[in-house]
Write a structure and sequence with these properties.
homotetramer; about 375 residues; alpha/beta; Rossmann fold; 2 domains; 12 strands
């Protein structure tokens, strides 16, 4: 019997960490064949070119597709989605996958979902049923309504999916593959850690306490990015700790955030902040497993953070409503509030681990479902009994 | 105070009838300015070029956009969606609408919804919360999850929207604008009726009983279109009544349907069937208001048909689950079953009118909401108390 | 040593006949590997789906790409070119060809040329240096200015290329591959000839004299197509001979031509004209090798026609300036003029063969150049000594 | 009589300076109406957002179009061209210009040329007939073969156009609009000069000698950009003079150049080099009119430079073959050679003005031709008598 062809699209550095253990499980599964497309910011130097990490990890890349229309604003985010659909349709036409797996809620994810569902290809979706802010909130649920197989991280998310009219027979609570990597993270960082990464800024000693900051634009608050990042910069600068700062993702408003960071660098060349474009997923999770506090608005503070017990300061509205553990403290867009929250979290130290996003075996569970599930392409709104 | 700019995209002949009364109401409203984009099959000769009807009706067209990638298969349906997003994003960038109105569940509608929602433009959606078959089912609900204002046709649909997590404060049960036209439909057809339309086939006398047939491809059953249409052709041929037949829409599989129709014409030049590409929305509704039976899988059999009391034979899965009145009889994809249902419906004659899709005032209600509603661009899954 | 990867794009039925012998030679050459992309109208049912012929001929297709934006007007011709470039760039990125071969002067050819030349891929071009009417005239020369290897059909064309500033060291007078097929064409047609082709219209006996008509739109005369085709229809109808008529290509204005043909069919169901969407290249050349007269504005009347000695009536401006043999008589867009020219050419009968477009060995010569040529990607306007 | 609509596309900061005086002349001409589209890197912050300068200069922008696919490599350059064609076709469809003016030889220019020529819109082209290196060389000539009106800068270029088969009746030697701005450039720089521009790097006194450096990627040497820019950086660093450095344009390889510049900045924070994204065209020409030496591979060293008498060091192959005055000295890609050439040119001081690219009245001449020329859309290769 022919192996089922499972096609995954990795579109950014964050995507990759949230699907890597699934790629491994698909590659190992006797009844599955992995097809891998890398596109969008996953190919771009400015965003860390995760494609290089993927190839070093031993995953052959079936196709590369440039799909980001430059501008980093709302218009180009829409256009990039459109371009992704066009291109992915051609790639699916030629690769002929049996199932397409799409991750979470980004615009490249939307592009994948639209292309696959219109082409009658079974669409599997991770992170469905989670709640958040930004345009991601709308997009995630829209993708769930297009998807044929759901891999929510927890029961709470699964319940939301059922409420939205998804058939329980298509919903599999697997946990999130991001936790699979978190479960393997070493509890200390070797001295050679940063040898592989250039970045810009002063050297650091990661055996002393350090912050990690990752703040993305909030697309529904487009235009307020510079003010927002300046508050965070002021708070972090005030904290005076050595800091690992990642450049933001490619969402609309990214330019504003980057501009704020570059201006800060010009004016504060002595600040103990080192800026990076990318880490391998393993190094990223190691980094946040060992930091004094994770600051910003990345979902990793809530997702991997809850499992790792990482003290986190979550800023603004981007994660509003997302299920979380005790490790997260909220702050608004004010330097004062952020600084106080950082101080409190650093003082608190690590939290106990919570398994609300999985137990470390999500990838293998998903692969097993992909190998065996039989679903109809035709969906129908599911009305409870 | 500046008028609110309300931008609508008409992408097909069917779209137009389902939004025309809203266009009128927006045009008349003192606080609203109408922006009109015509695209997709709405520009194409093969699909009746509804753009010409629109201009004759006195609606200035702000922009035309060709967005159909030819092929009429699943791949090109996806690609056309992608192209539409790209192009609409540029048009929205330049027209700067305050609200974008998108109709129902077609792929052009999806393109509109993605472009507008990513661009932080308030998205209003009609027909949300209805249930059906084909890919339309998935797409309609996905669009609801992107939309900021909902104009469902009835309470049943509104309830589905709430269940899906939409905020009741954003849901307005207005009825469907298609019923606004149905409510004005004359109860007889003048002899000059077809002077305006060429079409191909023998002449007809519409004061004698006639059938209307409109059967679109079902995208989730792609590849079965020729068999399906051949069954319908055989049944209609067997009925032996004069018949008005509309070419199918541009969905994947349209080519198969058209091929079946053309082969039938070559082989049965004497059959009393006249084929048309398009009618004005008013003429279409007049036509079905006065026919002996409406056959096929168009939602107009259920929507306008329920209001008009038109006997209808609904074939196959395309309308599965859609709320309906007593005027509809179902048939599978068999000539025998279709023929029997036609016979029974013709014998039955007109049904009493049912207002389940509106009372004829949808357009004005929607315009009033568009003029006054204040909604946040940021959505959040609405969890009941 | 790795084989050189030679990538060809077949974008229409006409394209294929003009490159098929080259594909054979590349496939057989020990130092070359063939990559084949089929796109544009080559995938479309309405234009004969030459992709099926290609696969039956034993050429594996590496990728399919839908790139025609529907509309058949000037705007969509431009858009289709843009879409083709976008898609081909992704395919070239993934196929990594050493040389891309592009044929003649169509908009898909332009798309290929732009994509390859911007990507520093050696671009080989056939039919460069020929002169004609329509937009093809501009496009053909523009492509020559992008190409790195030229395969003109004859010395006259080669001289034009040198005058245009192309380096003589990059120009190889090989003849046209279309003549390779013409040289193999049987001098009679078997009775089973049309079994493979459906088409519409009455049966024919090809052992009795017949006409072949092929009239494409002239894009630079867009809007005049219906008038033009009506003149040809009147003339052919007046001739009263059995006629094989091919539907036009996908150029802007194709819709007008098709509309004219369909209206004629509705009004003249008895006319002895049979309409076809496609023939294999071999069958097409056999068909024109044995016809009484080839009518229309296809370059095949001049190209293959000169070799085969086929009496031809060339209508209008589309072939203005193209080097020709004695077999061609010109006519303007008037039924009268066309009818007289047909009468004279039928009366004259076959002409002697002229080798002005090649001797039947173009494909093998081209393959040999492709295997051995060393050219720099950097071009420079060549100024004669 | 309706005014002729003249549509120009400005796609980059360099574009604008080379067409600004024409925009002024069109705007003032009683028989012409100006339509302005700004797209490509002309909208992007990273490339100086020349759209803001354009609007401050009083030119209303009819449409904005994002058309750069991010990646800055050969593949995305091709894709950006394709995207530009698609989008411009829609804009032309809606703006309905009588003539489209396209500037020089960039990929956005190619996109404009393809869209306009396929749409039977008269295409006017500046800088045709010039010779250079990079892909620009091929593209410039290809565009000439698509254009209907030529505005070469000098007789030498006009002669090349005739040789290429262009009709002398369509060729107008007008000079280059870039010289119109150069002719107005003040011969000194006020102290407030840089108040309007931020940039990064130390402050400068432009009344003391300074260098200007502008080095773009050479697309046909893609992959060698870092080595090339490092040689220039070493040479300029060695010169030890205060330096105004512009970031490179968006061509393939731009990323490499930028990376080289950023790494240099990190390592040499004290170097007296100030980096800028953009100047107004007037400020740019003032800047090079008053510098000690213009270094790099911009055509402005040859074009405006010849008129201004600016000592210039031209590096590498990008300008190979371009007609030049005595102000230019060549250097290869070696720090040593560049440093020596800079030294010699600074020592030499200003050269006499040469009018080989125009006399300062190009814009008004072009506008007059645009207002009065009658050309056929149908081109034909012009064979000399």
């Amino acid at each position: 019997m022919a192996k089922r062809k499972i096609c995954t699209i990795v579109a950014s550095r964050a995507n990759y960490g949230r699907v890597k253990s699934l790629l491994e499980s698909v590659q190992k599964h006797p009844d599955l064949e992995l097809q891998l497309i890398v596109g969008a910011s996953g190919l771009l130097y400015r965003f860390g070119q995760v494609v290089n990490v993927i190839e070093r990890d031993g995953f052959p890349v079936n196709a590369r597709v440039y799909s980001i229309v430059e501008g980093e604003n709302l218009t180009t985010m829409a256009k990039s989605t459109g371009l992704a659909i066009q291109e992915l349709a051609t790639l699916f036409e030629n690769l002929r996958p049996d199932v397409v797996v799409t991750v979470a809620d980004r615009f490249e994810t939307m592009g994948t979902a639209v292309a696959a569902s219109y082409m009658n290809i079974c669409l599997a979706h991770t992170q469905g049923g989670e709640v958040s802010g930004s345009i991601d909130e709308s997009v995630r649920h829209a993708i769930s309504k297009l998807a044929h197989l759901h891999f929510p991280a927890n029961q709470e998310a699964a319940d939301i999916l059922v409420r939205m009219g998804e058939d329980p027979a298509r919903i599999f609570v697997t946990g999130c593959p991001a936790i699979d990597l978190a479960a393997r993270a070493p509890k200390e960082i070797g001295p050679e850690f940063f040898a592989r990464y250039g970045g810009v800024g002063p050297a650091m000693d990661l055996n002393r306490p350090y912050l990690v900051v990752l703040q993305h634009p909030v697309t529904t608050e487009f235009g307020q990015g510079i003010d927002q990042i300046n508050q965070t910069l002021a708070a972090v600068n005030q904290a005076g700790m050595q800091t690992v700062w990642l450049w933001p993702n490619v969402d609309a408003g990214s330019d504003d955030i980057s501009k704020g960071l570059r201006m800060f660098r010009e004016r504060n060349p002595e600040a103990p902040i080192h800026f990076y474009r990318n880490f391998t997923p393993e190094d990223y999770v190691t980094l946040i497993a060992n930091c004094a506090c994770l600051v910003g608005n990345s979902s990793s503070a809530i997702r991997e953070g809850s499992f790792l017990g990482t003290p986190a300061v979550n800023i603004g509205s981007r994660q509003t409503g997302r299920t979380r553990g005790p490790n997260v403290a909220d702050a608004g867009y004010t330097a004062q509030g952020i600084a106080e929250a950082i101080r409190a979290q650093v003082a608190h130290g690590p939290y106990p681990s919570a398994s609300i996003y999985g137990d470390g075996r999500a990838g293998e569970r998903m692969a097993q479902v992909l190998a065996t599930a039989e679903v109809s392409i035709q969906k129908q709104f599911f009305l409870r009994g």
